Task: inverse folding
C-alpha cells in the first residue's frame, strides 16, 4: 500500500532543517510526547521523499522531552481487523523508506523511545541515546501487537527473546543499558544526543555516496541470505562500489599519501 498524502494540519508536525549536506528531521508533537498519528507518519514520509539531492545524511530527533512515546492510541479505538491490517501495511513502506532510502539516518534518542517510537528508531541506521532515554514495548499490557515492522527489525537488534520479555512483562530498559543490549550504538550524557548525532552525520557525509548506499541496502540483506548467496552479493557490491569514479579517486589519494589514514582513538 502507498502512504496517503499528509493532511495540511499535520505538515507542521514534522519540520526539516538543513545544515549543509545534513538534513535534520524533527518530530513536532511535544504535547503528545511525539506520538505517531497517521498524519505525522504521512508528513514524515513526505519529508524523506522531498529531501534535496545535496542531502547525504539525515538526523531524526524529537521536540520536547521525548523522542517518541509510540502510537497515538486515540486513533486505534474503533478500528476493526481489516482496518488494522491496512493501517499496519500503510506504515511499512514509510519505515522501509527510511531503512532502505537514499541516505543514512541517525536517530538522536532522548526520553521515551517506546512502542512505535522504538519501531521508528529501529528503522534508522545509527542510534544515539542520551542518559534520559528509556526503551519499552508496552503493547502487551495494552492488548495490541507491534505493527510498524518491529517484529522484524527489533529481534535483529536486541534478540527475539529480549523483545518477547519486554512485551510480555512490560520491562523497561534504561539508557545505561542501551548499547550493551542493542538499542543504540552510542550512549552520551543527557542533552547531548543531538550534537553527537550531528557529528556522526557529518562524518557519514564524507563517505562516498555509493559506499553508504551499498552499506545501507546490502548489509541487512546479506545478513538474511544463505552463506553462498551472501558471498556472491558481497562480491557484486564490492565490484560495483569500487568502480565508482569517486572510489577510484579516493584509492589513488590513499596510495599517493594524500588521503586520510586510520588513527588510533
Result:
Amino acid at each position: 500500500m502507498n502512504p496517503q498524502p499528509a493532511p495540511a494540519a499535520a505538515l507542521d508536525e514534522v519540520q526539516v532543517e538543513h545544515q549543509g549536506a545534513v538534513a535534520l528531521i524533527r518530530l513536532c508533537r511535544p504535547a503528545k510526547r511525539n506520538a505517531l498519528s497517521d498524519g505525522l507518519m504521512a508528513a514524515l514520509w513526505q519529508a524523506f521523499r522531498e529531501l534535496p539531492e545535496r542531502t547525504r545524511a539525515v538526523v531524526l530527533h524529537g521536540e520536547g522531552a521525548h523522542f517518541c512515546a509510540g502510537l497515538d492510541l486515540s486513533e486505534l479505538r474503533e478500528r476493526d481487523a481489516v482496518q488494522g491490517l491496512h493501517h499496519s501495511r500503510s506504515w511499512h513502506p514509510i519505515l522501509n523508506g527510511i531503512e532502505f532510502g537514499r541516505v543514512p539516518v541517525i536517530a538522536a534518542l532522548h526520553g521515551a523511545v517506546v512502542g512505535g517510537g522504538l519501531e521508528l528508531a529501529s528503522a534508522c541506521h545509527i542510534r544515539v541515546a542520551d542518559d534520559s532515554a528509556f526503551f519499552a514495548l508496552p503493547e502487551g499490557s495494552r492488548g495490541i501487537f507491534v505493527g510498524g515492522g518491529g517484529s522484524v527489525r527489533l529481534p535483529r537488534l536486541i534478540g527475539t527473546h529480549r523483545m518477547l520479555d519486554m512485551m510480555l512483562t512490560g520491562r523497561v530498559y534504561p539508557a545505561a543499558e542501551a548499547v550493551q543490549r542493542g538499542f543504540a550504538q552510542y550512549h552520551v550524557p543527557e542533552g547531548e544526543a543531538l550534537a553527537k548525532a550531528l557529528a556522526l552525520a557529518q562524518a557519514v557525509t564524507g563517505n562516498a555516496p555509493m559506499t553508504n548506499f551499498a552499506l545501507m541496502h546490502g548489509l541487512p540483506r546479506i545478513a538474511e541470505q544463505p552463506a553462498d548467496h551472501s558471498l556472491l552479493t558481497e562480491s557484486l557490491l564490492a565490484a560495483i562500489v569500487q568502480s565508482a569514479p569517486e572510489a577510484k579517486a579516493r584509492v589513488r589519494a590513499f596510495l599517493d599519501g594524500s588521503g586520510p589514514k586510520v588513527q588510533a582513538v
